[in-house]
Amino acid sequence: MNRITLPQALDRLERAFGPAEPPAVTDPWEAVLWENVVYLADDERRSQAFETLKQTVGIAPEAIAGASDATLRAVAALGSMPDLRAERLRECAETVLRECDGDLDGSLDAAGAQAGRILKQFPSIGDPGAEKILLFSGRSAILALESNGLRVLIRLGFADEQPSYAATYRRVLSAVSDELTLETAWLIRAHQLLRRHGRDVCRRTRRACIRCPLEPDCPASEL
Ligand code: SF4
Questions:
Q1: SS3 27
Q2: Distance CA 125, CA 122 (A)
Q3: Residue 145, CA atoms < 13 Å, CB-side half-sphere
Q4: Angle at which helices 82-100 and 104-111 pack, to 10 degrees?
Q5: Is the pLDDT of residue 176 over 80?
Q6: CA–CA gap between residue 50 and residue 113 (Å, rounded)
């Protein structure tokens, strides 16, 4: 079976399920808080928690650093392990105040090619998360897959799973590199279409191959 190309897969996903949703947040500081506000929550609960944070505390670093433990815990209670998440929110605020003088945007602009290093100082932000924030904020032209999109491309045969998530991520990005259009809008569309497909259809368990438009070209189809 010849492997489907990434542009073909994306067009098919778009025709079947509609255009990609825009990213929930694009501002880097908001993205750091978005990742940290709850643990193991779906998009809806994450969005609820983020709105609760905005309304009850605000998202200014000083406001979060000065909020009580109980207030931050109440925000994080929409997901799992609220005590830990409350600590993480405070750690985010203290990090941006200490390392960036409260201005993450300005620090990323000043850092240029080293911007990823700044982002990885925050809790829950590794290489994939940093690359996603840089893509969504228009600073970097890299596909920046998250776990759902990565799973889709593995099942489609772009690369085999490696012993670690980091190695798998790099292997898939390398395999797909010749098929990318290096424009931010194209890459965000690709990221979002793959993410949605992995979240809704090509799920980690109970994948719905029967309604997948990629099924005729998928070596991992369960049909
Ligand atoms: S056919 Fe099944 S395994 Fe393959 S991409 Fe579609 S949902 Fe995933």
A1: coil
A2: 6
A3: 27
A4: 60
A5: yes
A6: 29
Q: pLDDT for 106-115, tens place per residue?
A: 999 999 989 9
Quote the pLDDT of residue 10: 98
Q: In whole angstroms, what is the distance from residue 101 CA to residue 46 CA?
A: 27
Could you give the 3-state DSSP secondary structure of residue 143?
Answer: coil
Question: How large is the average pLDDT for residues 94-106?
Answer: 97
CA–CA dist 164, 200 (Å, integer) = 24
The tokens 């929930």 sit on which residue? 24
Residues 6+ apart with CB under 8 A from 69: 86
Residue to substitute in 17, 156, 211 for testing ligand 1 pocket (most ligand atoms within 8 angstroms of CB): 156
Between the CA of 221 and the centroid of ligand 1 the distance, in Å, is: 5
Flag whether the pTM goes above 0.90: yes
CA 9 distance to own-chain centroid: 20
pLDDT of residue 73 exceeding 90, the answer is yes
Please give the full DSSP string across 16-70, using - where no structure is assigned. Answer: HH-SPPPPS--SHHHHHHHHHS-BS--HHHHHHHHHHHHHHT-S-HHHHHHS-HH
CA 215 to ligand 1 centroid distance, Å: 6
Q: Is 144 left (phi over 0), alpha (psi -120 to 50) or beta?
A: left
